[in-house]
Amino acid sequence: MPMEKTFDAAAAEPRLAAAWEAANAFAAGANAKPGAEPFCIMIPPPNVTGSLHMGHAFNNTLQDILTRWHRMRGFDTLWQPGTDHAGIATQMVVERELAKSNRRRTDFSRADFTRLVWEQKKKSRGNIIGQLKRLGASCDWSREAFTMSGAPGAPDGEAGNFHDAVIKVFVEMYNKGLIYRGKRLVNWDPHFETAISDLEVEQVEVNGNLWRLRYRLADGVSYEHPVAFDDEGRATDWETRDYLVVATTRPETMLGDTGVAVHPDDVRYRHLIGSHVVMPVTGRRIPIVGDAYADPDKGTGAVKITPAHDFNDWGVGTRTGLRVINVMDTRAAIALRDNADFAEGCPADLIAAAIERFDGRDRYEVREAIVTLARDDGWLDGIDADRHMVPHGDRSKVAIEPFLTDQWFVDTAKIVGPALDAVRDGRTQILPERDTKTYYHWLENIEPWCISRQLWWGHQIPVWYGPGVEPDGKSDYSTEGLKVFCGTTFAEVAAQARAYYGVASVHEKADLSAALEDQLESFSHAEASVSLWRDPDVLDTWFSSGLWPIGTLGWPEQTPELQKYFPTSVLVTGFDIIFFWVARMMMMQLAVVGDIPFRTVYVHALVRDEKGKKMSKSLGNVLDPLELIDEYGADAVRFTLTAMAAMGRDLKLSTQRIAGYRNFGTKLWNACRFAEMNGVWEGHATQGAAPQPKATVNRWIVGETARVREAVDEALAQYRFDAAANALYAFIWGKVCDWYVEFAKPLFDDAATAAETRATMAWVLDQCMILLHPIMPFVTEELWGLTGRRDKLLVHADWPAYGSDLIDPAADREMNWVIALIDEIRSARAQVHVPVGLKLDMVQLSLDEAGRAAWMRNEALIRRLARIETLTEAAAAPKGAITIAVEGGAFAIPLEGIIDIAEEKARLAKALDKLRKDLGGLRGRLGNPKFVASAPEEVVDETRTLLEQGEDEAAKIEAALARLAEIG
RNA sequence: GGGCGCGUAGCUCAGCGGUAGAGCACUACGUUGACAUCGUAGUGGUCACAGGUUCGAUCCCUGUCGCGCCCA
């Protein structure tokens, strides 16, 4: 059945994908040569509930190119797929679902809720995986991993040991002192009611106010505040104040103020350091402290200090010994009732009034209320509009609160060293190189990593608490006094506890109160026992995905895959997760197994819309890769992303561009169709070696093929995906289709050349399919199947290794001359408006030896492509002819009566003008003795040659012009 | 404020010490034995600006201007 005119991507893609799957084509080690070197890529696991966006499409296209390329080259290749359980994101999906029927997470038991999330996981997993498959991602799908596989409560079909790996790492790091628990100010997300890490906080610039509040000085103190200044900034007038004005963007936090800071060198205030103010509302007496954090140029120079609700204030409080008063609950509502810290040191009536007024209300409501109160009571000094940064949760999009809680931290300072060294000494290479700076900068200034999350979906922290034992033998159940047991299972922990407490039996209880209850009961038992309860928190998602390289390969089991594929070869990822993921994988792999996770990290940029805007749902400029695949085919989308993947640069995607590359696929398709019509594929089977044709044209295209193979390999070896794509585009369209296919037409008519041309064309087109396959897998696989008897699918075809040995320099020169001649004739014809279809006679005025030989050998195709009827020799050009000057010769085409003499004059004059300009430059250089002396010899030689050729050509054009002048 | 980039044809971008390229867009012509998802020919650039290094600078260095991004 003859080929269709175009490739039907929509129909072919599922069929081809099924064929690959049936052949197990992507399995680890498939198509590996004996003793092959391993090549392994770990997919950056998408969120299990996610769907494919343009960034994924880009990221996975690049990985697939590398994977397919290596697999075809016979490497022992593994592209490891999987998904991430994505703690907050996934829990959010389920909670949103529940909210539709007015239910909350807390309406369920933890186990029941977790079961719902597992169900959601099962339901959504297929989405993203199916979408990756539609892109053509050649992952070993039989090895699909999940960051929570094997976790307690995991349903059937979720076997695996990733959970074991995560727990084991936590326990080991805890035992080595790399993980600790601490009461610290953390970023608290009031929406999800959990701590988050620094990285999950986004700074958002918002329009707000700077409110100035008057805090009354205690003990009758007053001071002179400067109010007028001379030109040099010296105070010239003062007023007496018995209050201090502080400026704040967050008035509501004044309820937790425990100090006012001024700069120790600030002449306005420094004498007040050590004095006190009495707070409005609460009547609390708080000190004025000196600290360099107070910037004399910002606000009023005096800043209220709330150590419990601001990171900077926490620092000031720590340095100057201020109290810490927490006035908010986990949802960022003001919490004053039964708040002993708050009540301490304040008059009871004021406390009662404050509770009445503010307790239980949202932070923003209280802000309004405080400002109103301040205005009414006369301690609002003023309001200035102020634009400032407010930290927001990257998932919840609500303003985060610095919040004082007990959390678990990785002591990153202790494990950062090896991760820095590995990049510094080149064991791991980050590309583009500038991203190493980003990596260094972050790691060199690394902060402790808060890894506990107050969520239910995730790896529960393997820590159990029991009572502390005081010197007098009493049990201590206070938060600070608890004894921590860390182990991979309760049995392990129970053994530790039995030894620690010297008791025979240890029970596990749900929480502290259940444990206490049990403990009280145990007094009535004969046997001494202790009850422990597990830390309810789960680990940051990135803690587990930080173990992705070893975890997916089966660690802690010493699997053959781990032996073979670790350290992995390349990580392909976006720059936005260098900190989240890349740096942490480096630190953790080095800390846990003492080796780098990957040898190369290829960092790519962002996919933007065609105007350069970040794609976002709210802007409505999101291009959905799946819709694009539906419309243009996966190959077109892939090729577009590849061609635009200049290292480290954002790519602006337009559908026009995708359509252009879809056309490129069609172009190759039709070249193959042309071949089919000319019997090229009759009896064709994959050739092991390149053909050795005799005709110059065929020898030339074989050499060009060898060139592009080298270019593609070199480009891919350097991760220059764009260069690989462009080299193939230029070769297939610009060389094979534009010239070779055209040249072949007359060759097919000649019995002497037909056979070898068929063989050559078959080979060349095979090479096109092979070389293009990593970027455009579908159309090439389809063509491969349609065009010959094949032992293997194209996905497993042997990648060629031939090189410049196939280039025949003589054929190269000759074909370049032929192409230049055809170009010249076509250009001349078009410019003097000779109808395209008209066949003309041509006169050869002069031609050197090489030119004559070239003409002889290629006459048929020159005549055909330049539309020349006959060639005769003559010493001089006939009247009314156009002149064609080429290297080594000149031709004329008589066009008397057909062309406009003036037009031909103009054409030649223009050509001559450009030529003279070029020659002027060349002469100028050669005339400069310093150039001849200093420039490399080959550059000087080349310049001389160019000059000679140019002068020769100019002479011919001048002669032609002179002739035209005679005619008038 | 600190850091990293980027300013090349109308647009999107390659190039990078030897005198400027691609795709798209645009103009004219055209169904010549694959392809109109096409062909042929063409228009279009003091390579942001100013200095410096060099025989020679779009490319290297310095500064200026403009635009992004990241971290505070």
What does this structure look like?
This protein has 968 residues and is an alpha/beta fold. The protein folds into 5 domains: 31-172 and 540-604, 3-Layer(aba) Sandwich (Rossmann fold), CATH 3.40.50.620; 207-391, Valyl/Leucyl/Isoleucyl-tRNA synthetase, editing domain (Isoleucyl-tRNA Synthetase, domain 2); 463-534, no CATH class; 657-791, Isoleucyl-tRNA Synthetase, Domain 1 (Orthogonal Bundle), CATH 1.10.730; 812-967, Helix Hairpins, CATH 1.10.287. It contains 29 helices and 34 strands. β12 (276-278) and β13 (285-290) form a beta hairpin. The longest helix is centred in the C-terminal third of the chain and has 31 residues, at 937-967. The protein is elongated and about 120 Å long. The chain binds one RNA strand of 72 nucleotides through α11, β30, α20, α22 and α25.
Please sum up the structure shown.
The protein is an alpha/beta fold and 968 residues long.
CATH class of the largest domain: Alpha Beta
Query: Strand percentage, roughly?
Result: 15-25%
- The poorly predicted ranges are none
Query: How would you name the CATH homologous superfamily of the largest domain?
Result: HUPs
Using the CA coordinates, give the radius of gyration: 39 Å
CATH topology of the largest domain: Rossmann fold
How many helices? The count is 29
- Structural category is alpha/beta
| Biggest sheet details | 7 strands, mixed
Distance linking N and C termini: 61 Å
CATH architecture of the largest domain: 3-Layer(aba) Sandwich
Number of strands: 34
- Coarse shape: elongated
Number of domains: 5
Q: Helical residue percent?
A: 40-55%
Average pLDDT, to the nearest integer?
A: 87
